[in-house]
Amino acid sequence: MIIILGPTASGKTRLAAQLAHRVDGEIISADSRQVYRGMTIGTGKDLQEYVVNGTTIPYHLIDIQDAGEKYHVHQFRQDVFQLLPEIRKRGKVPLLCGGTGLYIQALLQGHQFTEIPINEPLREELEALSHDELLVIFHEVPSAYSGLADTSTRKRTIRAIEIATYLCANPDYAFPEIAVPDFQVFGLNPPVEIRRQRISRRLHERLQNGLVDEVQGLLNRGILPEILIYYGLEYKFVTQYLFGELPYDTMVQRLETEIHRFAKRQMTYFRKMERDGIVIHWLDSHATTEQWVEAIVSHI
């Protein structure tokens, strides 16, 4: 399995599609929001990139859930492990492409903690607490997960508490064994200034191409505003604008700032993956997509 990762606006999708065309592969999306139907512009599905020289590259885990439904890392692992033998049976090469580091790491390092069930009552109780309060609770519940947990955001800290609480209540819990396939990971990391330029340009293109209408359409379909806000970034800030909480210019400014911060957090997580033992082959940031394809083919 070939994995391509990188922060938002780094060129992952184009590279994955070009590489899949070269090696006769199929792409599995590792993006936590592209699974949702109707969330196309805001999540940057860029489906036109999957057409290479007149051939549509097969892709998976895009548009598989209705907006408003829940999709978690555990479901992602299950879906990928179901897809892999199907792709191999067709004689194709599986290419995993995305920027959700948590999903990728959970898949590659076999994080069995993702199998632990969700505790909705506990989540509702924790939702009222600040991030600092959540961190205090997390450190008060030591478990086998303590050294692995990602507590960089409120949402992830809540999940960490959920896992730790479950392990304390079920000390004899047996984790299922799942074989992880052989893999090579390649990363894109454009210089910060270039990344910032791409993010800003792409945001304005999305706004011109109907991002606000897309969010309004989701609201018209009955998707609750708090759910769209939960999805974050484009869906959060555009929803706040549509409900009169933010003027348009302020919405654009804050959204642009948050996307830049998001890209920085993605890179921080990828560095964490490296510290955790995942080897990432970083591609030359000054090369072209075609040169990246050649570099990967040469490497594998």
UniProtKB/TrEMBL annotation:
Belongs to the IPP transferase family. It holds the Pfam family IPPT. Catalyzes the transfer of a dimethylallyl group onto the adenine at position 37 in tRNAs that read codons beginning with uridine, leading to the formation of N6-(dimethylallyl)adenosine (i(6)A). HAMAP family: IPP_trans. Its EC number is 2.5.1.75. This is tRNA dimethylallyltransferase. The record marks T100, R123 as: Interaction with substrate tRNA. It catalyses: adenosine(37) in tRNA + dimethylallyl diphosphate = N(6)-dimethylallyladenosine(37) in tRNA + diphosphate. Its cofactor is Mg(2+). It comes from Salmonirosea aquatica. Substrate binds at T8, A9, S10, G11, K12, T13. It is an enzyme of class 2 (transferase). Residues 31-34 are annotated as: Interaction with substrate tRNA. Monomer. GO terms for molecular function: ATP binding; tRNA dimethylallyltransferase activity. One of its GO terms (biological process) is tRNA modification. Keywords: ATP-binding, Magnesium, Nucleotide-binding, Transferase, tRNA processing. InterPro entries: Dimethylallyltransferase, IPT, P-loop_NTPase. PANTHER family: TRNA DIMETHYLALLYLTRANSFERASE. ATP binds at G6, P7, T8, A9, S10, G11, K12, T13.
